[in-house]
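Quick one, tokens below. Sequence please?
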């Protein structure tokens, strides 16, 4: 239990407490601000620990930022001392380490100094720098819009998945009405569209719906008459690929697709609830290559039952295909996932070695890390990272994850974001997660998005 005299710091503190799996411990916390000193006093197990940080503070925004930072650091240093355990990103608990690094640079400071103070491992400080170097051209271009379309339908639901997807066998009756709502939403976007950098149709598994249904979605996008841009479809699992859907995608201008096996082990595929095989992964990939797409392959480090050698095998298999992108996720416990219902905390032997191995293998194969993000309850406190061959970085992933462009999102569980450049402000509107509720509220969603983007 946490008792604190500053309740608005509690969420930040608890992020660190959960990292160490200390939710059942009792802490009494007092926060004081004196001059430029941020003082945190923590009582734990009848001992009192004092921590003091000094930051020049000009306004209330800075005060709250530094107060949260100092509280997280105090609890991290205490629990590190008590347990002897450290984590790869130290006291950084946010999902966007690069965004914090850019903020430091924008205020004239070297982000490496802050990251070192927050106990980020030296190799991860260097890794963040690598990602930022790859992103520089996209930051220089700045602004614009990314268009996201949600198709939350899958053949089956994987054990680790927290998305709103359910097996299409139980949601198939909604697909046509759902697409009718997407058509209405997309048509409503015309007045707000400017420089569109990318289109991204995500899932779920977009190829899980029929070719005729997929064509309706593509036609609705085509009706917006967007200029040529990056156009991704997260086609998904290999068992739903068909030549008809691939040709349809090519005909409507899609130039990037995702083949997402997560592993090249048939044993693991069965464990996580997949109904396809590694052979089908190879078949889907080779067939997709015939249509000229840039292809992304997703892998997950830490899948149940896999050891370092198993994950290394998947890395080698993916790299040997030489796709444009390989995305390496670290397994995470997420609300709504069956895995989280059964497991309180992920303790995966060798997870750090798996992530280090991915960096070595992919760098050696000619890939560079171009975007990254982190999640709560992620095994070992590591990260998810997208890797790209030269010139093949996904603009959508950079624009949305770094929040440097507007994200116009349609469909269930879609979150539109309007970025106010230079104001350090982002406004959002979200659609319901539940598919029937989304369908019932489509008109309201359209109205709220128009208002968000200043169209009454």
């Amino acid at each position: 239990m946490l008792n604190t005299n500053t309740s608005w710091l509690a969420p930040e503190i608890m992020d660190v407490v959960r990292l160490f799996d200390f939710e059942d411990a009792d802490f009494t916390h007092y926060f004081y601000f004196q001059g430029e000193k941020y003082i945190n006093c923590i009582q734990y197990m009848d001992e009192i620990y004092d921590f003091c940080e000094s930051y020049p503070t000009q306004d209330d925004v800075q005060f709250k930022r530094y107060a949260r930072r100092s509280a997280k650091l105090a609890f991290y240093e205490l629990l590190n001392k008590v347990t002897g355990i450290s984590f790869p990103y130290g006291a950084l608990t946010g999902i966007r380490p690069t965004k914090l690094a850019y903020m430091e640079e924008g205020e004239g400071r070297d982000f490496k100094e802050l990251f070192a103070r927050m106990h980020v491992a030296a190799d991860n400080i260097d890794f963040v720098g690598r990602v930022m170097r790859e992103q520089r051209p996209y930051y220089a271009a700045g602004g614009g819009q990314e268009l996201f379309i949600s198709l939350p339908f899958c053949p089956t639901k994987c054990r680790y998945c927290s998305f709103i997807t359910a097996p299409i066998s139980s949601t198939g009756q909604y697909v046509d009405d759902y697409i009718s709502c997407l058509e209405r939403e997309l048509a409503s976007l015309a007045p707000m569209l400017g420089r569109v950098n990318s289109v991204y149709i995500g899932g779920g598994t977009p190829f899980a719906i029929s070719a005729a249904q997929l064509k309706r979605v593509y036609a609705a996008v085509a009706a917006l008459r967007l200029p040529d841009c990056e156009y991704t479809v997260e086609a998904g699992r290999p068992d739903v690929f068909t030549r008809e859907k691939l040709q349809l995608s090519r005909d409507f201008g899609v130039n990037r697709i995702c083949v997402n096996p997560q592993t090249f082990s048939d044993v693991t595929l069965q464990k996580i609830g997949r109904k396809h095989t590694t052979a089908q992964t190879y078949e889907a990939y080779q067939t997709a290559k015939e249509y000229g797409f840039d292809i992304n392959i997703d892998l997950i480090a830490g899948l149940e039952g896999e050891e370092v050698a198993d994950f290394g095998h998947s890395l080698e298999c993916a790299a040997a295909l030489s796709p444009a992108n390989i995305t390496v996720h670290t397994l995470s416990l997420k609300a709504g996932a069956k895995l989280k219902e059964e497991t309180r905390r992920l303790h995966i032997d060798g997870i750090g070695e798996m992530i280090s191995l991915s960096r070595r293998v992919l760098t050696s194969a000619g890939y560079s890390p171009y975007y990254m993000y982190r999640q709560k309850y992620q095994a070992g406190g590591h990260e998810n990272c997208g890797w790209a061959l030269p010139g093949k970085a996904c603009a959508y992933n950079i624009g949305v994850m770094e929040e440097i462009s507007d994200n116009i999102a349609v469909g269930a569980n879609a979150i539109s974001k309007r970025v106010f450049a230079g104001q350090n402000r982002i406004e959002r509107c979200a659609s319901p997660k539940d598919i029937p509720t989304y369908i019932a509220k489509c008109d309201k969603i359209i109205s709220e998005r128009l208002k968000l983007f200043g169209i009454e």
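The chain has two domains: 2-85, 136-445. The mean pLDDT is 92.
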